[in-house]
Amino acid sequence: MATCYLSLGSNLGDRANYLHTAVQSLRELPGTRVEAVSGIYETAPYGYLEQGAFYNIAVRLETGLEPHELLRETQRIELENGRERTIHWGPRTLDIDLILYGTVTLCDERLTLPHPEYLKRAFVLVPLAEVLRPNDPHAARIRAALDGMPTDGVTPVMAW
């Protein structure tokens, strides 16, 4: 079993419902247990700016799925929720990013772990800090990154 951290976002339709549906789908994955879900935060779009605000959450889970299996399952969940990949960083019903998978370091054509940009993105780090285990091997790095960045654009919307 590995402790994994995911970042989920939605900026189309009923954003909160897409996030709730995704968490429920994660709960149904074989050999996987959702351990913690952050509150919902509203954030400005990143990259492609001509789109609506996002709702973002972080999820901590324990899974027996291997990294590529987990990626395949999260992409299936995205598709089941109407995800279309038309514009890079564009609007989407649901986005699920694998941020950390235990202490695994991986880089291939399909997956990079840890996520290559996560320490630069407040919309990932603020919810992530909420579900992070205090003794997690990544905790000090995450807290240091958060201490050095503005987080005023990450607005709490509701508790999970």
UniProtKB/TrEMBL annotation:
<keyword id="KW-0808">Transferase</keyword>
<dbReference type="Pfam" id="PF01288">
    <property type="entry name" value="HPPK"/>
</dbReference>
<keyword id="KW-0067">ATP-binding</keyword>
<comment type="pathway">
    <text>Cofactor biosynthesis; tetrahydrofolate biosynthesis; 2-amino-4-hydroxy-6-hydroxymethyl-7,8-dihydropteridine diphosphate from 7,8-dihydroneopterin triphosphate: step 4/4.</text>
</comment>
<keyword id="KW-0289">Folate biosynthesis</keyword>
<keyword id="KW-0547">Nucleotide-binding</keyword>
<feature type="domain" description="7,8-dihydro-6-hydroxymethylpterin-pyrophosphokinase">
    <location>
        <begin position="88"/>
        <end position="99"/>
    </location>
</feature>
<dbReference type="InterPro" id="IPR035907">
    <property type="entry name" value="Hppk_sf"/>
</dbReference>
<protein>
    <recommendedName>
        <fullName>2-amino-4-hydroxy-6-hydroxymethyldihydropteridine diphosphokinase</fullName>
        <ecNumber>2.7.6.3</ecNumber>
    </recommendedName>
</protein>
<dbReference type="GO" id="GO:0016301">
    <property type="term" value="F:kinase activity"/>
</dbReference>
<keyword id="KW-0418">Kinase</keyword>
<dbReference type="GO" id="GO:0046656">
    <property type="term" value="P:folic acid biosynthetic process"/>
</dbReference>
<dbReference type="GO" id="GO:0003848">
    <property type="term" value="F:2-amino-4-hydroxy-6-hydroxymethyldihydropteridine diphosphokinase activity"/>
</dbReference>
<dbReference type="InterPro" id="IPR000550">
    <property type="entry name" value="Hppk"/>
</dbReference>
<dbReference type="GO" id="GO:0005524">
    <property type="term" value="F:ATP binding"/>
</dbReference>
